[in-house]
Amino acid sequence: MRLPDRAGRPLRLALFLSAAAACGTMAQARPGDLPRILTDRATMAANPLPDFSYAGYGFGTQPIPGDDGTVVDVTGFGAIPDDGLDDTKAVLRALAAANAVKGKVTLRFPRGRTQITEVLRITRSDITLDGAGAGAGGSELWFPRPLKLIDKSHDYDELRDYLVREKKQQVEPEHNIDYLFTEYSWAGGMIFVAPEGSRPVSYDAAKDVRDPVLAKGVAGKQFARTLTVDSATRLRVGDVVQLQWFSVDGPKSAILKSLYGDTDLPIGSHHWTSPDRPVVVQATRVTAVTGRTVTLGDPLLHDVRADQPAVLAEWRHLTNVGIQNLRFQFPDAPAFGHHLEQGYNGIYMTGVFDGWFRNLVIDQSDSGILTDNAASLTIANVTTTGARRAHYSVHVGAVHNVLVRDLKVENPVIHPLSVNTRSTRSVFLRADVAAGAVLDQHSGSNHQNLFDQVTLHIDPEQGKDGWVYRLWVGGGAPYWKPGHGLYNTLWNARLVIPESVPVDATVAITSGLEGPGERIVGLHANRRISVHYDPAPYIEGTGEAVAGAPSLYDYQLARRRK
After folding, report:
1. Does any domain span residue 526?
2. What pLDDT, in 10s, does the model give residues 494-507?
3. Rounded-to-integer distance, Cα 458 and Cα 436, Å
4. How far apart are CA 469 and CA 527, in angstroms?
5. Where are the beta strands (DSSP E) in 445-500?
6. What start and end residues bound the annotated signal peptide (predicted)?
């Protein structure tokens, strides 16, 4: 496969182990060494890495709160586990009581099965849903009915209209399928977390209203934490704000070049056709104000300057919302197919800063966890299981600084690891995908995201040219292309190839047409591999684990803490 560069010369996209010495951006790291992208000044300058260690609760350095506050037990309001009867009304009474508590509150679920047949809506801050554990003898939430049956809200009317307007049809002639996408393919959950009265999905540009501006950015440097503003009189230390960049000059907007670099790939129209919708959003905290200089909690995603303006805007959000120590159980219902999901979704979280999910098992879901318009989340020790084919395991979409740590994907999933539209500086750390592993870098200005030390079980096929496996399978419509922006990174990923592939085989690891500026460092396997990525990425250490820095996130976090 060949693609002409801007000078018209052919650019070889297949990067082989045997070509390492001939490729200026490809070098084999010696075992135990740090890769050149972390040590060589020229390489680092030409191929910068964002500091991914800011992902997670409290910018990656603060512990998740352990204080239960006031405990409201659902059994005190009539829920009786394991009696085979519906507990929804009792749980809703308990939730109402928890909402009436001032300060930190924990809604506690008992051991055994609690049956729920309505959506549980979390609309306040400082609340934790907690159980006795996700394993045997723990707390199970049993959801026997899909959202298609029980969701009577108007939350997704805007999304429904969008699906019709854009003619979003799932068409599979060989299966006699020609149906409109469902609204629950990437939205909605049995537990729905959002500020009261907020707009949970935003698909109609006519309904966009810009958030109130607190300050206009004057000057700021990408990857630095300070920003000069026109006036800081409306900013206070501790404020959570959104830094928003807009495509102010349509397809010629400077922010698009900052997103994608000097690429020849076409850039989709959705990047500029909604003028009141920012193309890049960074939710962050004000940590210091000195005159007109503002220090933010995490580094700027992009420059701020006259031709690439940005604003600090108000953001309506919740904070300190957690869900932990629970098993979500859905029935063994049929799977209708991709984009036809009926809504066996676990959690949908939007409008949250500093939240967490941990110690969860989600069985037989259409999607386990869906996120949107959120930031500084930690999602830890989540396992998705079941025989039904799911859409997402954990979906990272339109979010910033989300850390997904120690995820286990044991069920068949179309997009097992996904950084979706407008996701920035989010991290999948030590995820393990048990079968059919693919990486979804979904079109829509997602950039500066990291897949770190993940284990991916794959099953290559043998063709006329040898063994091959497509690892990168990015979704998205043409109006949101390219597949991703600059600085998406795959670090020290391990491919597990079955014994059916001969030990002396070389497996070609391929992509479709993705996006510019990808970094692939330390991709290795139990067979020889070659990497074919389109367009050409920075690639280093193929076939060798990164022994000196097994996790880029941990390496960067340790340097910050020093």
Report:
1. yes
2. 999 999 999 999 99
3. 5
4. 12
5. 450-452, 455-457, 461-463, 466-472, 489-491, 494-496
6. 1-29
- Residue 149's contacts (CB-CB under 8 Å, 6 or more residues apart) are 342
Average pLDDT, the chain: 93
In the numeric block, which tokens belong to residue 4?
């002409």
Distance CA 502, CA 215 (A): 61
Those residues whose C-beta lies under 8 Å from the C-beta of residue 454, and which sit 6 or more positions away, are 417, 428, 429, 430, 431, 432, 433, 493, 494
Query: Is the domain of 534 the same as that of 416?
Result: yes
**Which residue among 313, 330, 356 closes a domain?**
313
- The Cα 154–Cα 160 span in angstroms is 10
Domain that holds residue 300: 207-313
Residue that the structure tokens 């869900």 belong to: 323
Domain for residue 278, yes or no?
yes
417 plus 561 within the same structural domain: yes
- At residue 405, φ and ψ (nearest 5 deg) are -115, 130
**Matching residue, tokens 């950039």:** 447
Pairing of strands 112-115, 191-193: unpaired
E strand or H helix at 122:
strand 120-122
The count of other CB atoms within 10 Å of the CB of residue 509 is 25
**Do 308 and 426 reside in the same domain of the chain?**
no
d(CA 20, CA 429): 27
Lookup result for tokens 């070609």: 508
The verdict on 305 and 435 lying in the same domain is: no
Q: Tell whether 398 is covered by a domain.
A: no
How many separate domains does the chain show?
2
The answer to whether residues 300 and 424 belong to one domain is no
Report the C-alpha gap between 210 and 52 in whole angstroms: 28
Give residue 206's pLDDT band: very low, low, confident or very high (50, 70, 90).
confident
> What value, to the nearest 5°, has the Cα angle with vertex 378 and ends 375 and 379?
120
Q: What is the pLDDT of residues 29-80, one digit of tens each?
A: 344 589 999 999 999 999 999 999 999 999 999 999 999 999 999 999 999 9
> Are the C-beta atoms of 451 and 418 separated by less than 8 Å?
no
CA-CA-CA-CA torsion for 172, 174, 178, 184, nearest 10 degrees? -50
Quick one: 452 and 308 in the same domain?
no
Last residue of a domain, one of 297, 313, 329: 313
Q: Are 206 and 253 in contact (CB under 8 A)?
A: no
Q: What is the value of pTM for the model shown? A: 0.94
Please give the full DSSP string across 64-92, using - where no structure is assigned. PP----EEEEGGGGT--TTSSS--HHHHH
In a domain, 488, yes or no: yes
Residue 387 in contact with residue 362, Cβ under 8 Å? no
Based on the fold, state whether residues 419 and 309 are members of the same structural domain: no
Q: How far apart are CA 402 and CA 374, in angstroms?
A: 8
Residue 379 to residue 382: CA distance in whole angstroms: 7
The continuous run of DSSP H or E covering 114 comes out as: strand 112-115
- Write the CA distances from 462 to 12, 204, 394, 508, integer angstroms: 23, 45, 31, 10
Amino acid at the residue 15: L
Phi-psi sector, 150: left (phi>0), alpha (psi -120 to 50), beta: alpha
Identify the CATH number of the domain in which residue 218 sits. 2.40.30
Q: What tens digit of pLDDT does each residue of 234-244 get?
A: 999 999 999 99
